[in-house]
Every structure is written in structure tokens, then in C-alpha cells.
Design a protein that fits this description.
Blueprint: H1 2-11, H2 53-64, H3 69-84, H4 104-111, H5 125-144, E1 149-150, E2 153-154, E3 163-164, E4 167-169, E5 174-181, H6 183-192, H7 196-211, E6 218-225, E7 231-237, H8 240-259, H9 274-279, H10 283-286, H11 289-295, H12 299-304, H13 308-338, E8 345-347, E9 350-355, E10 363-364, H14 366-374, E11 394-395, E12 402-407
Parallel strand pairs: 5-6
Antiparallel strand pairs: 1-4, 2-3, 4-5, 6-7, 8-9, 9-12, 10-11
Helix pairs in contact: 7-8
Protein name: PD-(D/E)XK endonuclease-like domain-containing protein
Region (Disordered): 377-418
Biased composition (Basic and acidic residues): 385-394
Amino acid sequence: MLIQRARELAAAATVIGPRMLPCRCGAPRHVHRGAKRSGGHAPTACGRYRRDPADLLRERAQAGTGRSLGQDLAEYDRARRRSRRVPRPKGHWSIGASDTTSCRRAIWYRENPPPGYTPAPTDRRAATAGILIHDSVAARRRALYPWRLYEQRVTLPGLDRPSRYDEYDPITGILYDFKTAGDWQWSQVGEKGPAEEVWDQAQLYALALVLAGELVREVRIIYFERKSGADEEFARPYDENAARRALARLTAIATALDLGTELPRDRSGPSNDPICRRYCPARIHCWNMQEAASAGRSPESYTLIEDRADIEWALADYDRHRAAKSDADKQQSIAKTLLQGVPYGTYGEYEYVRTGGRLKDPEPDLTARVRQLEAFWDNPPGERPSLHELDYPTKRVQTASRAEVRRVRAAKRGSKSA
């Protein structure tokens, strides 16, 4: 087989061995002399080997045929991050307004990594989709509102990194901040509205504009659901006191870094928190995940529980929440009885609805499998199909409808303000 393949390559005049990549002068690579083929080529008066742009383009075209869309987006994102990376002097920290939503321990790992720390891979797909949506939204709004300012850098006193807001209207004095959301985040926003940390970030952008002499009357946060394309807008008046409190927290982080203080964790850990589990590059080192797996414990238990007193505290905390859950279940059952026979509809901030049954995902159908095999039972052994040739039958079960109590989404309660 190998000999035959070699003959085919020879017949096709394909070079076996180092590729003869052409230089700009037209001579192949191997005729250039010097270290790393950097020497000259006398017949063409070429000073050194320079790769032919046409050959480079051909190679890139061939490589591009085997890459997926996700790989292309990830590579573009990496190249953009590299191009925007600016070396900072020693003792300067890259802390900006967006860090209001970051875990303080994650900031500590990012800015002052301990010896032996290696960032863990993170899932960047949702972030990449968010960037695509954000860029598309910004381009369309630029066309609609050309007087507004977009993606402008602003500085905040005490922070080393300039911040960048999404959109600002200098005529109306409104600052806009855009967020994209997946299923879980969209559900949280519908229940509670934007988190206070998200409001703090927008208020900090507004403070930076005010300090620069601009007028800001209101900040608005617009959420865009990636799956459905739905959007919801929330608004608050500009609050200088809230902005300065947020700025004080960020400058406190920078001061702690100056002093070499280890910052605390703000999240519950990779076992229960999807942000820790999927998006934090410090999770393995921060929560001792490898050591915990070897010890047969959860990362949170291995990291936080050190002695008998810690175990007693964890048991008491578990028992307290178990009692609270039991009491809540009893109260919910009483309330459910009160709602029996109540007409479905919207009542203030709540909706009382009857959900229709839905089809579950396909699952193996054992009964249909038995009937399938019985159909071939009387056939002679030589005429029976092999098991791997028969598709295993599946079924989809319809769930029963039931009454549900839901809160009206936060963006629709009263006005747009949250």
C-alpha cells in the first residue's frame, strides 16, 4: 500500500520531503543559504529568503477549508485581544469599571498570579456570540443616531485602566450599557432585574463622563436574549453617591494589591456556580480542584473545611437551610390550596397560568423494541437482520399540564425603572 502511494505521488510530480516554498525572487527556499534559510541567492540577486505572498495566501486558503466557524471566531477573538494588550509598568493594576461584576479572588489571580499558577481553559463561545451581537447592534445604532458617542474611553480617579462605555447621548444626557444573556441570565433578569453590580458599572461610566464635564441625567441597561432576540430595557437616574461607593470598592481592591493582600472569594465554587465552573480561568488553582478529586472531596469542602470546628459549622448551616426549606414547602402547600379554583390571569406583579404539556426528549421504547424483534422471530436464522442493523425505537412522552405562579418580568412591572 505504501509503495503504491509513493508511486502515485511520483507520477503526480509531488515533491516528497521538505517543501520548496518559493521566495519573492522566484527561487525555491532550499537554495537560499545561511542560518534558518535567511541567506541570499546570487543568481537572482536576492539578499535573503522572503516568503512569496502568493504562496502564503495559498497556504492560508488551504488551512481555512478545514476550520470551523467556531474556530475562526475564537482565533479572531484571540488576535484582537493580543493587539489590544498594552504592557503596564510594575505596580500598576489593570482594574476598570467592568470589574464591579468580577470576583475579587479572580482579579487577584489575574493581576498578581501566585507561583505555579496556570490559567485553566474557559468557555468563550457565549462571550464570542455576545461580541458579535454587540458589534452588530452598535453598527445599526450608529446609523440611526449618528450624534451619539460609541465605545469611548473614559478614566476614573484611582483606577489604572481606562474604561469604555457602550453608548452616550450628549443631547439627552442618557448613558446606555448593553448586555447579552443566555437562558439562565435572562431568567434572573426577568425575576430581579439587573444585579446591583451591573448598575454600579453603568453608574461608574456616568461618573467618568460627569468628571470629564459631560451631562448625564440617566443610565439605561439594555438586555438582549441571544436565543430569541428579545430585549428589555431598565433605567435609573444617575446616582453620584452610588457611583462613588462603587469606585471606592474598586480602589480598595487596587490598594490591597499594592499591599500584597490576598483577596477573598466572592462566588460559591465550581460545584454550584456556573461562572466558576465554566468561565473562571483561576478555578483549578483557586479551589484546589485536582487535590480535591484525589482526596474524594468536593473542591469547596477541600478548600474551606479544615478542622472539626469547620465541619460543625457546615453541619449547622445545612440543618438551618433544611429547616427553612421544610417550612417554606409547608407554606407553599397552604398557599397552593388557597389558589384552587381561582381564575387564571395576571394579578398585580404575578401571573397565575396553566401550562400546556410539552414533549420530552426522545427516549428508548422498550415495548416497541420487543414488537420489532417479534416480527422477525419466525424467520430462519439466516434471514434475520443483525441487531445493529435495526434502529432502536424511541418515544416522546407528553408531560401533564399544571398550574403555575410566575412573577411578571421585572422590565414590565410598573415603569421601566427597576
